[in-house]
Amino acid sequence: MARNLRSKMPRADPLFVLDISQATLDKFVEETGQDAASAGVEEGACQVQVAKNAREVAEKADIIITCLPTVKMVKDTFAPMIKEGSLPETLQSRFVDAPVSGGAVGAQAGKLSFMFGTDVDSEGLVDYLKSVLLLMGTKAWHMGGQGCGVSAKLANNYILAINNIAVSEALNMGREWGLDLHKLTELINSSRGHCWPVEVNNSVPGVVQGSPASKEYTPGCPVSMINKDLGLAMSGASDAKTPLLLAETAREAYNKVDGEYQGQDFSVVYQYLSRRSSA
């Protein structure tokens, strides 16, 4: 995300970055420098500055973008920004919830989709926010007031969580029935079963090159993360008194899969099923 952000930002604007991994920061600075050199940009024109801490980011940046997977990480990031002295001007303006969809593959390709929520109290605000988000992706939807971005993301990921299990079950059935899974995938992609977990994040190793399954289930989206979103969707549905017929079964399945394949991509559900089929 940040690499695409730097490449599309005005060259004179500095980009401040912060990550818990120093190795990741070093690699990012090196890669953005190479990108700038390849594009014929003058040395030092596309500035990337590594911040010492979150407070420094808040004090120096006009726009702060965070991409954090857990509530604890959000608290740990924002607490230092606001605990010392007066609140930085950046944090006195507005917060926009802007969850992202597209996974690691979409992030690298600059093809992420954003759904954001904020109250509109000034002309041009939505267009301005879209212009910022589209530096990292290709689509951005204003879903309503504050919190609506998160609600839209949870609705979308509820479908994804259920769909991923169904796809893994179907492909595992196909394998047990002796079907060629490359051909089955091609068929599904041309039929009404077509969906992202089949076409892009296919759970069978070797069927889709570059998918997590084809890289030993190296996560784009770890099992724990989709399980977290599923739990949040279930909690929100309960508060709204909205029934979810498949949620408990899916939750139980992901709890079991995460217990055996912690840290791996959520498409590893296929591996969980296939090993039980052969048992």
Q: Can you describe what's shown?
A:
This protein is 51% helix and 8% strand. With 279 residues, the chain is mainly α. The protein has a three-stranded mixed sheet. α7 crosses α10 and α10 packs antiparallel against α11. This is 3-hydroxyisobutyrate dehydrogenase. Its EC number is 1.1.1.31.
CATH architecture of one domain: Orthogonal Bundle
How many strands appear in the DSSP assignment?
5
Relative strand content: 5-15%
Parts with pLDDT < 50 across at least 5 consecutive residues: none
Question: Strands of the largest sheet, in order across it?
Answer: 3-4-5
What's the CATH class label of one domain?
Mainly Alpha
Record keyword descriptors for this entry.
N-(1-d-carboxylethyl)-l-norvaline Dehydrogenase, domain 2; three-stranded mixed β-sheet; 8% strand; Rossmann fold; mainly alpha; 279 residues; 5 strands
Would you spell out the secondary-structure blueprint of this structure?
Elements: H1 2-8, E1 15-17, H2 22-38, E2 48-50, H3 54-60, H4 71-83, E3 100-101, H5 103-109, E4 112-117, H6 125-133, E5 137-144, H7 148-176, H8 181-189, H9 196-199, H10 223-239, H11 247-260, H12 269-277
Parallel strand pairs: 1-2, 4-5
Antiparallel strand pairs: 3-4
Helix pairs in contact: 1-2, 3-4, 7-10, 7-12, 10-11
Keywords: Branched-chain amino acid catabolism, NAD, Oxidoreductase
Pathway: Amino-acid degradation; L-valine degradation
Active site: 153
